[in-house]
Amino acid sequence: MRRRKFIILGGTAVVIAGVTYYLSSDKTNAVRPVHHEATTGTPPLTKAEREILYLASLAPSGHNTQPWLVKYIEPFHWVICNDKTKWLSAVDPTQRETILSIGAFLQNLEYAAKFYGFQYSSMQLALTNQDEEIVDVTLTKAPTAANLTIDAIKLRRTVRSGYQSEALKKEDLSYLIENEADFIHYIPNDSKEHRWLNEQTIEANRLQSYRDDAQGELADWIRFSSEDARTHADGLTLAGMEIDGIPAWILRNFYKKADIMKNKFREQSIDKVAKQVKQSAGWLIISSNDYTVKNLLETGQRMQRLFLKVRSKNIAIHPMTQIIEEPSTNKALSASIGVQQPIQFILRTGYITDYPAPVTLRRSVNRFLIT
């Protein structure tokens, strides 16, 4: 009897301890809060300035690094700068992707400015991808309001799962590309080029996963805990990677950077990529005339214009650029898919049934504003 009583009491204690730990653990994925920010700060910004800059910051970037700074010159006059602390040196050693991301930021900024009744003008300052000052931007009050909406900027989201295999409809593709057929190319899922891209995406991810510098860089930008996510307000959150439920709870409470460097995590990531590429209507490729700062900025803007269109057609896109980032796979890229211009984006695409709300975190305007 005593032994039985001891076992019962011991089991009860274990259950209580387990429940207590669960109740005190990190249970909820950190997601983007409703935008609200105090109007105080140095320098002071008008409400319109703050809203325009916040909307600009909803642009995508590799690992969600948000590699931009805004230097305040005077009201509605800023210099958009390159934040060198956000560089991804292992996968983007020339800062090509950084400049593309700043281009996307500029496209959002232009649309947001017009929505709030301002004319947008800019002057390129940078000659190289590594220059600090990239573009000088001035907004002036427009004589008439532009017929624009900012909903697409607010709702833009990278979707990673649930893609259908139906090819993109001709009319939808025409709407997406619209006067940019020289730079946006569709690779349907019944083509040999599609099969090559699928295979090489898996291979490039395998190569990158087993490069310790690239894997370590990835680890630096994964925000497992909700506390880390809210503290940094950037990086790859579990919600953004579409991990929820019990797997997310385990990762939030038990995973650290060292776990990402283990072969188990690397293999699981590669397996996930293999499953993802099997789901799609094909690939969208975005190319540029060359690798100059001017053309990289324009290509980032072009990509963002595309990204802001897809939701209205229930089409998702998922940037998967590892083929470009890995020299051995990039070498054969242009010849294998028949695009002779420099390729800057490889986007998995397809129709989805339900579009989820955006969840990737964003730093407040005060955190990327400098004087």
How is the secondary structure organized here?
Elements: H1 2-24, H2 47-56, E1 68-74, E2 77-82, H3 96-115, E3 118-124, E4 133-141, H4 151-155, H5 170-177, E5 184-188, H6 192-209, H7 212-221, E6 222-223, H8 226-232, E7 236-237, H9 245-254, H10 257-260, H11 263-277, E8 282-287, H12 293-310, E9 315-319, H13 322-325, H14 327-330, H15 333-337, E10 343-351, H16 365-368, E11 369-370
Parallel strand pairs: 1-11, 6-7
Antiparallel strand pairs: 1-2, 2-4, 3-4, 5-8, 8-10, 9-10
Helix pairs in contact: 2-3, 3-12, 6-11
Give a nutshell description of this structure.
The chain is of the alpha+beta class.
Fill in the keyword field for this structure:
371 residues, alpha+beta, NADH Oxidase, 2 domains, 4-stranded antiparallel β-sheet, 11 strands, globular
Description:
The chain is of the alpha+beta class and 371 residues long. It folds into two domains: 47-156 and 359-370, NADH Oxidase, CATH 3.40.109; 170-351, NADH Oxidase. 44% of the residues lie in helices and 16% in strands. The chain is built from 16 helices and eleven strands. The strands form three sheets. The chain has a five-stranded mixed sheet with strand order 3-4-2-1-11. Strands 5-8-10-9 form a four-stranded antiparallel sheet. It starts with a helix and ends with a strand.
